[in-house]
Amino acid sequence: MLIGYMHNYNKPTSLVKIISFVAKAKGINVVYFNSGDIDLNSDKITGSILVGDRWRKTEIKIPSIIDVNAFALKHEPEIAHLAKHAYLTDNGKNRSKEFIYTSLQKDQELRKHFSKERMYSKTNNGDPFDCRVHLEKDGQGKWRIAKNYIRIGLGEDAIANVKKGTGIAEEKVFFQANYPDKAEEINQKLKQLGLTFAKKVEKIRGIELATLGIDVDIDENENLFVSNISSAPAPSLLSAEIAMLRSDYYKFLFNNKR
Questions:
Q1: 158 DSSP assignment
Q2: N or C end of the chain, less CB within 10 A?
Q3: Average pLDDT over residues 179-192
Q4: Is-contact 128 121, C-beta < 8 A?
Q5: Cβ-Cβ contacts under 8 Å for 235 (sequence gap 6 or more)
Q6: Is 3 within 8 Å of 19 (Cβ atoms)?
Q7: How far apart are CA 198 and CA 88, in angstroms?
């Protein structure tokens, strides 16, 4: 079973290596490549496959399933070529944030989770924070929350850069400390919001995605507001969780989409 993984880097990232290790234990080989490895005049690519602990270059036929990182979508001719030969986890269509946000706000139920002006959540100590909901597809092709975590800035100067975060907190511990009476309620609302938005974004774009990140602010009345939706959420804090879910999803795609 062979699955392709496309990104922009010349060498596979640490996440790809972890995914490859986990996938190999499930009978799946992952071949990593970038836009420069694609022969636009044939059905071949030159990719890297993990052999033991080392990457080995090899020329192969374009895999029938390719996990395309969103940052690689800028290579439009290459993406179009791959789409003729394979199922892609993202093809770049209907991807602009303006189109997605405008479409989401046409839904009366989802509209209440948008604010006309950017608002910032504050901890009990007055520090800014936001919530990241990281979603991945599972072995049944359904959305699963890989992890929720809180990104905390320190001091007023950090408000504008809260997404860079100078601190990370587990959501359950954080909510218990800052919303002791409503910790579980807020946590459940956050999870449901993430799942609802992920399904809606897929419907709007007309494609089944593999991953999604949703950033959420909480106002003083515990209302949730979506501030950002990312099709390439940072994986550094949950590589193991991603690898387990993504490799299961690869098996689902191989059995159902090729």
A1: G
A2: C
A3: 96
A4: yes
A5: 15, 242
A6: no
A7: 18
> What stretches of the chain adopt beta strand conformation (E)?
2-6, 29-33, 44-51, 54-61, 65-68, 87-88, 121-122, 128-137, 143-152, 167-170, 211-218, 224-230
Could you tell me the pLDDT band of residue 161, with boundaries at 50, 70 and 90? Answer: very low
User: Exposed, middle or buried: residue 199 (CB in 10 Å: 0-12, 13-18, 19+)?
Assistant: middle
Of the chain, the end-to-end C-alpha distance in Å amounts to: 11
Condensed to tens digits (0 to 9), the pLDDT of residues 44-66 reads 999 999 999 999 999 999 999 99
Q: How far is 68 from 231, CA to CA, in rounded Å? A: 11
Q: What are phi and psi of 250, to 5 degrees?
A: -60, -40
Yes or no: say if 19 and 243 are a contact pair by the CB < 8 Å rule: yes
- In this prediction, residue 164 carries a pLDDT of 56
Block residue for tokens 């080392």: 54
| 50, amino acid identity | L
Judge contact between 30 and 20, C-beta under 8 A.
yes
In whole angstroms, what is the distance from residue 39 CA to residue 169 CA? 45
* Dist. CA 178–CA 162, nearest whole Å: 17
Q: Are 16 and 78 in contact (CB under 8 A)?
A: no
206 SS3 class: coil
Contacts of 18 (CB under 8 A, 6+ apart): 239, 240, 242, 243
Question: Do residues 193 and 162 touch, judged by C-beta distance below 8 A?
Answer: no
- Residue 178 CA to residue 131 CA, distance in Å, equals 13
Strand pairing partners for 58?
Answer: 47
pTM value surpassing 0.85? yes
